[in-house]
Amino acid sequence: MHWHFGMRKDIGIDLGTATVLVYVQGKGIVLKEPSVVAIDRNTDKILKVGREAQMMLGRTPGNITAIRPLRDGVISQYEYTLRMIQYFIKKACGNAFFAPRVIICVPSGITEVEERAVVDAATQAGAKNTLSKSPLLPLSARALTSQPPTDT
Question: What does pLDDT average to over the chain?
């Protein structure tokens, strides 16, 4: 019997303030979900992430609120951003045996401290990661797909 534990995946994450896009090499964009986390204000526990969190809006008791842990492309609430990245990596990669290699695209105007926070969050989320600036997103996607550039 041949066991296949899964090869390391290369993924790209565009951490937008409103929407997160996740690209998996060989599959294309596999996730496009809101950058939203639903939390219980009484316990500070994260209940849902992404589309599931957004669907809870207006249908839950007053102690549950939805927040956007990124402001202007910068992490404003580290723990919630970490959990959001973990959720999206797991949803995109499943239970892969090897940690994925990740390119995270962020706004070009962020500081080194903010950049380090994104790298740390992705690393804590279980990724081997690199970081790219937003203007390089099209180049990053081509690098992951190994496709030659095309004229636009």
Answer: 78
